[in-house]
Fold this protein.
Amino acid sequence: MTSHLIIPDAHAHPDYHNNRFTWLGRLVVDLKPDKVVMLGDWADMPSLCSYDKGTKGYEGRRYKRDIDAAIDAQEKFFKPITAAKKKLPELVMLEGNHEHRINRAIDLDAVHLDGIIAMSDLKYEDFGWDVVPYTGSTPGIRVIDDIAYAHFFTSGIMNRPISGVHPAYHIVSKQFMSGTQGHTHTTDYCVRTAADSRMLHGMVAGVYQDYNPAFAGVANDLWWRGVIFKRNVHKGQYDPQWIGMDAIRKEYGGR
């Protein structure tokens, strides 16, 4: 059996501190997971957001600041692990829609941006992550120990993200296996038993943020913040432990 530490959307942002990534590195040292799976959106990339472009709130954004924030978050994350001289776990980074903003920007303005900006600017591979890129217009999927991981799974031929009141159930019913995603910032969990007695786990993992972005408004209250540790992972089955942001800050923020 093995263990997976699941990091949901972390959104390293130049306007907010990255202390939570130091706490996360300290948590890894204590938990000693065999595998760390980052579900995407490690970087927020607000300078490439198309939703509020041209508004007052868009003023002052810079691509370099976004990249620097994502790199700083990685430096903070790995520093406690390196200092403890621990063997690195297997590291998997799923490209989220916020990282994918880089490739979308290049596609929309290749004349000016192709060869100037790139996904490699984030230095994920340099830090040791095994990156799972988008496939076309949808997030890539990585199966680890019979659990499918994606930034989000899609439903139907229109490739829309799985959502609704019971997204974890829809993951199981659409993927026909255990699956875990991020993206929505909420959390949901569902277990169904197959005819051969295997338990299929559907999970939506929340968000790893300790700040409330202004754009979300009251939706911030709907988000679950923290990480999830999966113990005794075997053939798609596991024992989940939700570790909330308040507990992580209390245990690791004062060191």
In short: The longest strand covers residues 226-234. The helical segments are 19-31, 63-83, 100-108, 110-113, 124-127, 167-175, 245-252. Residues 2-252 form a domain with the Purple Acid Phosphatase; chain A, domain 2 fold (CATH 3.60.21.10). The CA atoms of residues 116 and 158 lie 32 Å apart.
